Amino acid sequence: MTQKKILVVDDDPHIREVITFALEKAEMFVTTANDGRQALQSYTDSPADLIVLDINMPEMDGLECCREIRKTSEVPILFLSSRDEEIDRILGLEIGGDDYVTKPFSPRELVARINVILKRTQAIQPQVQTDDKTLTHGKLVLDTEQHALWWDKTAVSLTATEFAMLAQMLKQPKRVFSRDAIMQGSYQYNVFVSDRTIDSHIRHIRSKFSEVGCHKIIETQHGVGYRLSACE
């Protein structure tokens, strides 16, 4: 497997050193940046497979940096923050983050979470297309090999977690998924997230589809969970 390149962005040199050591021990290639502006330049010059992005930084904070990156790229982003407030978690996920870890953190857990995200976005070697690689539902088409999807022939860009959630629903379009079921199907290695995190991802998916004219991609079944809508 090709060695994965991780961009680590944090204004604390000790934290950069700790993360770099852990990732290199896991046989990943690491580059670093001190703040958001330096991160944007680094990613433009040499794109990474995943970005570990601190939120509280000088010059340009992690949230603003993420917004800029999301204008042109869906590269997975894992946020780091010294604040454990729910509003920060939700905001980070809603603007395009794939995961959120608070400081202090376990380097081993951080590596595990990064591996989970990378596994979901692992590039698959081109093969002859078969029907089980393409999932359709009304005007919605999802290609699991290309990691791409369209609604009414218009491409929709989702993060790795959002893509995994929608693919899960497409495989069982009549099922109502509880939040626990969505978590188990979209996250691996026993990574647990809160109900609010799942809700944030669902809102983000709805918002992206609304922008291309699909205003009811996922329905809420109150007291139960979520299900795919008719997508007509």
TrEMBL record:
Domain OmpR/PhoB-type: 132-230
Entry GO CC: cytosol; protein-DNA complex
PROSITE patterns per the UniProt record, alphabetical: OMPR_PHOB (PS51755), RESPONSE_REGULATORY (PS50110)
Coiled coil: none
GO biological process terms, semicolon-separated: regulation of DNA-templated transcription
Domain of life: Bacteria
Protein known as: Two-component system OmpR family response regulator
